[in-house]
Amino acid sequence: MNNISLQQIQYFKIAMKCSSFSQAAKLAYTTQSTISKNIAALEKIMGEPLFTRQKKGIMPTQRAILLDLELTEIYDKIDLLLNNTRQSKQERVSIGFCQSIDFSSSIPEFFSLFRRENYIPTAVIKLQCCENSDVVNGVLDGSIDLGFILSDTNISNPNIKLHTITSTEPQIFFSVNSPLNKSGLTINDFANYPIVTTKYLIEKNDYRMINLLPFTPKGIEIVKSYDDIPIYLATGLYVTLLRPYVNLANNKNIMSYKLPDSYHYKQGITMIWFSHNKNKYLKRILSILYKANT
């Protein structure tokens, strides 16, 4: 048994399921002569025939049936080995993006180009949605190959490469049921409405977003997450100022108002990657993204 090769075991396993060596050859993606030679070599090792050759095909002998049972555990180990080998050949590409970004609409050309041009057909793509800081940390520790974050995130690490995907001004969002949904709306109309925003935004930005508004809001209502904001806006009593390309922008029950040109605080989306990342497909992915945004 020690002299039996992996190839012989594989061909024997397939032959046991077939009525002829030619049929086994098709399943093994090889030739009939290759199957015959390997089975003959295996029979020589075993010291007796494993198949009776007939005009209409092959028939396993009693020894072949017993050998098939003996090799059951080995079959499983071989399958596991081969599957792990195949998986190791498939490059895994992890893409992380900030949960405040509506990824599918913010970078609309990415997936269409990705599918159409088939740049990395053997890669397994894994998408992760998390906080900005988690995306940055993931890029640094290698768990994320390519990240998409909000452009106002301060990154000072020299090992992280950055490329701005888009840059624009934040917008004010309000409910379609709000009295603000009228013609001739001006920026001053928003002053009579309280701003609803997240605790994270207030704590991390020191009221920066609010202070930079070209008007003074009636008040500030702080909620736990972005998911709570649409609930408040639905009453028609609140407005919110958000970064561009947040999930809220696709809500059909919510309208947006573009701030005047004098509002120069630009924001947007930046893609980041670790400068020493050795993933061989990362460069191809970057070429897709650059192409999509030129």
Concise account of the structure shown:
With 294 residues, the protein is an alpha/beta fold. It has twelve helices and twelve strands. The protein is 37% helix and 22% strand.
What does this entry look like structurally?
The chain has 294 residues and is of the alpha/beta class. It is built from 12 helices and 12 strands. The protein has helices spanning 6-15, 21-27, 32-46, 62-70, 72-89, 103-106, 108-117, 132-141, 199-205, 208-211, 229-233, 282-292; strands spanning 51-54, 57-60, 92-98, 124-130, 146-150, 160-168, 171-175, 195-198, 220-223, 239-242, 254-258, 267-274. Strands 4-3-5-12-6 form a 5-stranded mixed β-sheet, sandwiched between helices. It has a 3-stranded antiparallel β-sheet with strand order 10-7-11. Strands 1-2 form a two-stranded antiparallel ribbon. Strand 1 (51-54) and strand 2 (57-60) form a beta hairpin. Helix 2 crosses helix 3 (32-46). The two termini are 62 Å apart.
Order of helices and strands, N to C? HHHEEHHEHHEHEEEEHHEHEEEH
- Label the structural class: alpha/beta
Beginning-to-end CA distance, first to last residue: 62 Å
Mean pLDDT: 78
- Tally of DSSP β-strands: 12
Largest sheet: 5 strands, mixed
Number of helices: 12
What's the helical proportion of residues?
25-40%
Low-confidence stretches: none
Characteristic terms for this protein:
three-stranded antiparallel beta sheet, five-stranded mixed beta sheet, alpha/beta, 294 residues, single chain, elongated
